[in-house]
Amino acid sequence: MADIDIIGVAKTFGSYQALKTVDMHIADQEFMVLLGASGSGKTTLLRIIAGLEYANAGEVRIGGHRVDHLPPRSRGIAMVFQNYAVFPHMTVFENIAFGLRMQKILNTEVERRVKRAAGLLRIDQLLSRYSNQISGGQRQRVAVARALAVEPAVLLMDEPLSNLDALLRLEMRAELKGVLQESRTTTVYVTHDQVEAMSLADRIAVMHEGGIVQAASATEVYRDPATRFVGSFIGSPPMNFLPAERQAGGVAVVGRTFPAVAGQGALEFGIRPEDVVRAAEGLRGKVRVVEPLGPHQLVTLDIDGHLFRAVIENDHKIAPGETLVLAPRADRIRWFDRASGAAIH
Amino acid sequence: MKAMSLRNPVIRRNGNFLIGTAVVTACLWVLVPLYFLAVNALSSPKAVIGFPKPAVPQFNLESVHFFATYEGVATALLNSVLVAGLTMVLAIGLGAPAGYALARFDFPGKSAFRLVVLMTRAFPLPLLALPLTVLYIRTGLDDTALGLAFVHTTLALPFSILITASLFLSIPVELEEAAWTLGCTRIGAFRHIVLPLAVPGIAASAVFAFVTSWNEVFAAAVLTVQHRTLTAFLLQSLDVSPLPLKFAGAAALVLPTLIFLFAVRKYLFSLWGIANR
């Protein structure tokens, strides 16, 4: 049980800046997901917290104690790796017991804690097997059980589900959430899968080009992206963007006028695909493609030369070539500074 | 082009025939001498010299017995084992840590080091023989098992470094990292995780070093006088010894090599990148 403070942490590999100055607080028992594309620095940050990588600058504190000069074994962490890293020359039991043996814990206690961790992950039947005798999903369970058995202050997970096939990943995701909620361990979880991030996280830290762009709840990251990048990265299909011009008495977006927005400088108008409705007045566009998705249909339009996606109820059939008028929900419109990409409130 | 030739049954059949011929030739190249060696070593001295040979080889230990009791053979054999053993220990003791460093650490000049390691094999031993002998006489290392083992270690070291490096590379670094996060020091993780996984491969590379020393004749002949190894001893007495002794001696040299290589062939194959699944 511990909180994590990351203060001014930066990392370069040669001339490549993997992490710009990062500051972040992760509360005790919080489930924090680091979400980003490959090369965004999320794994580097996780490895710095773990002590597998050393930062060039800054501090890492776990439970208030400075740990950035300590080796991994002295930080009170446990880690689950993408490729599981289950020791091939040990049985499942010895794998789970490994961390406890290193702490020289009594045999009876080791057995009790291994059994409990194995029970939690439902691998009690596999304790005498070797890693080449169990499936990928089971190996993943062993890796998680091994990490939980040492009762770490902080649990670190590096894309733990990305080597599993889609169906198994969905199943493991739900199960992992249950197990981790029960264990109440502070968790930092790295993924590039936004659905995984949203379903698991208390908070999501969206990372881009070595920095944290926004750290907030899944809903907030989705509804109120801090930058244009977050809006375009989160959500499938992503947020729509249209150029906007400030005018006397308002903001013009492809011929429509919206109420004035604070500040100065060129603007961009942003709206989620599902936040538009068909109306008499609104953004006028020509339908290019219609994709029926079951409960609704995904319509790709050309609005004044800009690509625009809308998710629309499927009670009316829409045909390509048709002209559609879409009214954005006023409370869901977001404005971004065109130069910096930052959201304007 | 390649795809076409594979699809064409005539070309493919001819290709198979060529490969088959090559394989058979290569096998005969190795096996025929081994066959004659075995047959003659296990025949009576009379049968070895006699002609024509019997169609079915007889089995007789007289040659072997003659060889084993020949004066100097026993001590030469003992010297060979001693030198090869020392070489094995030195080559692994120095080579495995170097291999681990090559596999796990990035340091300036790493690729240059990898090249230089092999470069040691570029110097012909005869070129070094005279200065080495002089140096050995000055330091008192001449005619000792340890002195010869040093030379053999130099010969075996490049391979033990490169073989163990590829061996350690094949063990995922995440296994070590997982051990560190679970409470191990670097040395602890090596002992608990890397070593158990690497032991068979290290043993294979040790055997390779042993065999390198066991079969080496030039340095052994130059650097030892009283304490000849088996190869040097046989070379010395080649002209004066009868044919049965030569066959028995050759068999004694070949046999341990064959047994060792056969025992560790799986690891050597995988280290040399030959899939044997």
UniProtKB/TrEMBL annotation, chain A:
Domain ABC transporter: 4-234
Entries under SUPFAM superfamilies matching the protein: MOP-like, P-loop containing nucleoside triphosphate hydrolases
GO molecular function, one term: ABC-type transporter activity
InterPro entries named among the record's database cross-references: AAA+_ATPase, ABC_transporter-like_ATP-bd, ABC_transporter-like_CS, ABC_transpr_MalK/UgpC-like, Mo/tungstate-bd_C_term_dom, NA-bd_OB-fold, P-loop_NTPase, Transp-assoc_OB_typ2
Main localization, broad class: membrane
Cellular component terms (Gene Ontology): ATP-binding cassette (ABC) transporter complex, substrate-binding subunit-containing
Membrane topology: Peripheral membrane protein
Subcellular localization: Cell inner membrane
Keyword annotations from UniProtKB, A to Z: ATP-binding, Cell membrane, Membrane, Nucleotide-binding, Translocase, Transport
Family listed: Belongs to the ABC transporter superfamily.
Protein name, per record: ABC transporter ATP-binding protein
Highest classification ranks of the organism: Bacteria, Pseudomonadati, Pseudomonadota, Alphaproteobacteria, Hyphomicrobiales
TrEMBL record, chain B:
Stated name of the protein: Carbohydrate ABC transporter permease
Keyword RNA-binding set for record: no
Domain ABC transmembrane type-1: 77-264
Domain of life of the organism encoding this protein: Bacteria
TM regions (residue ranges): 16-38, 81-103, 115-137, 149-171, 192-211, 247-268
Localization per Swiss-Prot or TrEMBL: Cell membrane
CDD domains, per database record: TM_PBP2
Biological process terms in GO annotation: transmembrane transport
GO CC annotation terms, alphabetical: plasma membrane
InterPro entries: BP-dep_ABC_trans_perm (IPR050901), MetI-like (IPR000515), MetI-like_sf (IPR035906)
Family of the protein in this entry: Belongs to the binding-protein-dependent transport system permease family.
Protein keywords: Cell membrane, Membrane, Transmembrane, Transmembrane helix, Transport
Organism in which the protein naturally occurs: Microvirga alba
Membrane topology: Multi-pass membrane protein
